[in-house]
Amino acid sequence: MTLRSRLLLAQAPLVLALLLLGTLAVVTLARVGRSGQQVLEDNYRSVLATQRITEHLERMDSAALFIVAGERERGAAQQAVQRPKLESELATQQGNITEPGEAEATQRLRAAWKRYQSAFDAFLQERDPEASRARYFESLSPAFQEAKASASAILALNQDAMVRKSDRLRQQSGQVNTLMVLAVAAALGFGLLFTTSLVQRALRPVSVLSQAVRRLGQGDVEARAVVEGRDEIAQLARDFNTMAERLGQYRRSSLGELLQAQAVSQAAIDSLPDPVLVLGADGGLLNVNAAAEAVLRLKLEEGGDALGRVEPEVRAVLERVRAHVVGGRGAYQPRGYEEAVRVESSPEGGRWLLPRGSPVHGETGEVVGATLILQDVTRLRRFDELKNDLVATVAHEFRTPLTSLRMAIHLVAEGVVGPVTEKQADLLFAAREDCERLQGIVDDLLDLSRIQSGQLQLDLREVRTEDLLEHALDAQRTVAEDRGVRLSHSLSPDVETVHVDPDRLQLVLGNLVGNGVKHTPRDGEVAVRVLRDGALVRFEVRDTGEGIPVQEQARIFEKFYRAPGAPAGGAGLGLSIARDIVQAHGGELGVVSAPGQGSTFWFTLPRPDAD
């Protein structure tokens, strides 16, 4: 007789006992289950609804406090979101009346909620902060407490009912436990009587097999189970030995090394504090690290459109970087902090993440995916904001005394307060030029402050392109003639007008032309060209100066950056302001240059007739 047959025969009495025990367990557990289900059906829904009603009431009270504190828009928006949610939960409660007195308590809650809404509507009508504060404490807060107390009464009523039903269920469970213990003890004693001898005979080969399995689990792939015989345990030992042999071969294979390398690389990216994502060429999520799972709430095992569950603004940034890398344009490097995206990731507030991307290459060298790193620049961005605020404050404070100083120097130079010698006139002229240069720097700083604070207002209108070019060149013509630099311009006939803010755009053109004049030697030329570029209008300012090294081209648009050897007199803000103005018009600004071959600064604007 095989081991299988002996085990089956020995288990027959135990099977009969288990059948009886199972029948008894099914019947008794069904009774207990129905009792527990009744508790859930009757009271749990009401408890959950009243708890949510209380939460929504407290959030509405928080909204009222926001309004009292001066944050009216935030408070109004929050209370508007909470009202329909509370109405929905109140409707759920009204449809789940299960206990005596619950209908009356629900009606009281409905009435209290109506009174609270009326009080809140009256509170919203108050515009004066002191009046809002007074109305909050006089009418809104008592109405809130009344509604909250009504919800608490319903919650307490259902909780008391659940306690009573739980006590009854506990008594039934105790009886069932006693019955089951007796039945299990009887079945166990009956089964052990017939299985003890067989277990003792089977114990030795099983022990040998168990020791071999334990050694294999500890990493000893050379462990083998030596069991003689032809029964099932002996066959299992032979199968185990075969598995151990193949596992040893597998560990020695390149696949094992590959999996180990994959585990090491995963541990490496998980150790990075910044979110890291690996996307396929089709946008599918291939891998993420622990930081990405925590910040972006991504799960690789969820499958499907994983990025579809990310915030829309963040998803747009990820798609843009992925498209850049997968499109074969190389690694993606951000141009500045303005490309950072805000992610609400923790109760302490949002985090600003700056995207970077690098390609993932296949076996034949083609780009098969992109690795995206979202660098946490929250602290750097806050430092940048503090710096901008300080610069704006200092520039604003400089403006008034600088105006007085300019006027005083002008009056003295003109001889209004007395005659001036020739040497004094030279000194005053130099001082006046320095004041004018300082005034230009202050104006640039204030423009930069307005742009970065979002206060830049564009007065867009149809303007003749020829007029824009003439004004920009006329403003620089005197300086160009003094330096011996020729100015010229050409205009394509199909771009007669543009839809722009003329004052702001003349500032951009004047800055680019002025820079070209400064960097062009005598007998050189600065040429401005306007042409159509698909759905865009392209402006180009070309000079014949010394050119810009490649390593400097990416930095000349940064705030306060001055290239080595640049002429004195500026603060390094002109190109930064020009770029912000062009971007505010919906265009882009860039440069094409090489040392010794001059520079061409260009920017694009949407065409007025473009769809």
TrEMBL record:
Tell me where in this chain the Histidine kinase domain is found. Answer: 393-609
Q: Gene Ontology terms, cellular component aspect? A: plasma membrane
Q: Quick one: where is this thing mainly located?
A: membrane
Matching PROSITE patterns: HAMP, HIS_KIN
Record localization: Cell membrane
A Pfam family name for this chain? HisKA
Superkingdom of the source species: Bacteria
Q: Which reaction does it catalyse?
A: ATP + protein L-histidine = ADP + protein N-phospho-L-histidine
Q: Which GO terms describe its molecular function?
A: ATP binding; phosphorelay sensor kinase activity
List the SUPFAM superfamilies: ATPase domain of HSP90 chaperone/DNA topoisomerase II/histidine kinase, HAMP domain-like, Homodimeric domain of signal transducing histidine kinase, PYP-like sensor domain (PAS domain)
Q: What class of enzyme is it?
A: transferase
HAMP domain location is: 200-252
Q: Where is this region: Disordered?
A: 82-103
InterPro entries the UniProt entry points to: HAMP_dom (IPR003660), HATPase_C_sf (IPR036890), HATPase_dom (IPR003594), His_kinase_dom (IPR005467), HisK_dim/P_dom (IPR003661), HisK_dim/P_sf (IPR036097), PAS (IPR000014), PAS-like_dom_sf (IPR035965)
The record ties this protein, via Gene3D superfamilies, to: 1.10.287.130, 6.10.340.10, Histidine kinase-like ATPase, C-terminal domain (3.30.565.10), PAS domain (3.30.450.20)
The record's keywords, sorted A to Z, are: ATP-binding, Cell membrane, Kinase, Membrane, Nucleotide-binding, Phosphoprotein, Transferase, Two-component regulatory system
CDD domains given in the database record: HAMP, HATPase, HisKA, PAS
Q: What is its EC number?
A: 2.7.13.3
Q: What is this protein called?
A: histidine kinase
